[in-house]
Amino acid sequence: MTKAxxxxxxxxxxxxxxEDVPTPQPGPGEALVRHEAVGLNYIDVYFRTGLYKSALPTxxxxxxxxxxxxxxxxxxxxxVGDRVAYAGGPIGAYATERTIAADRLVKLPDGIDFQTxxxxxxxxxxxxxxxxxxxxxxxxxxxxxxxxxxxxxxxxCQWAKYLGATVIGVVSSPEKAExxxxxxxxxxxxxxxxxxxxxxxxxxxxMVPVCYDSVGRDTFTQSIDCLAxxxxxxxxxxxxxxxxxxxxxxxxxxxxxxxxxxxxxxxxSKRADxxxxxxxxFEVVQSGAVSIRVNQTFPLAEAAAAHQALEARLTxxxxxxxx
Length: 323
Ligand code: NDP
Fold this sequence. Notes:
alpha/beta; Quinone Oxidoreductase, Chain A, domain 1; Rossmann fold; 2 domains; 6-stranded parallel β-sheet; 30% helix; binds NADPH dihydro-nicotinamide-adenine-dinucleotide phosphate
């Protein structure tokens, strides 16, 4: 037997139960990974509450780092003993060990420890595709980043600055504003009530070519009003709830805007993309251009407390669960 967090019903953090489960065996093309660290991500909340659907009972979690302890037939990309990490579905990472398709694993470079890997794979690969592919950020661009002191946020602030961009971050408290500034945000707006006016002031009226909004329902309208003509609205999360249906006519009225709702799954679905995106992430972390802030750790058995902190906006940077 092994241990995992299981949910039998959707609901609050209390539905996360630490239970005995049978030790899984790798099938053809799969590897068994013994987890050393598991990443906490906001998407875990969506699966717990039922905003994102899964059959029940289930084990949530999208990201972990550990050691390959067994492989199934036909696996030649990893071997027993390899240090590996992964990010993305299928869910099941809140466990001391799990099986997963071997072609979803990436080998960890020597300089990257398990906690850093578990903290950065999902949030860091997200920052990579958002800044390097969804909208290609160029030196001199001024960009808007919501939840700038969060897990994805602190990585985006650092990476965008490294690319030569000026980051306007949005956060909910002065303490988070200081943190975002210390990680590369040139300007930080506390609260979003007057966001378009603040962005107008900061940009001298030019507004921004791209807005990265992971907050969703509460900020969508203000974010749209921060865009320059032909600007791109990247709505990539629902921390405050999902964005209601959008009137496309609004995009023409506000200046021929672009709107996208991207996911990491699409941007890393091909093995070649997964390798390229993770390599780019390892390079910026190993060079020191981006540092991964593991600002909270919890025992995996206490995942409920970690969820409470994340939803109460009490965390900054990344959070890791320890089996
Ligand atoms: P964070 O560490 O950023 O935590 C969420 C933050 O959102 C909070 O700290 C808070 O920051 C802010 N927030 C604003 N409104 C609310 C609210 N009503 N309730 C709770 N938090 C709120 O989490 P992650 O780094 O894990 O993820 C950030 C976002 O990016 C999430 O929305 C996630 O779903 C999304 N995401 C999307 C991906 C994709 O490919 N589409 C991949 C990865 C993440 P503050 O207090 O400063 O407002």
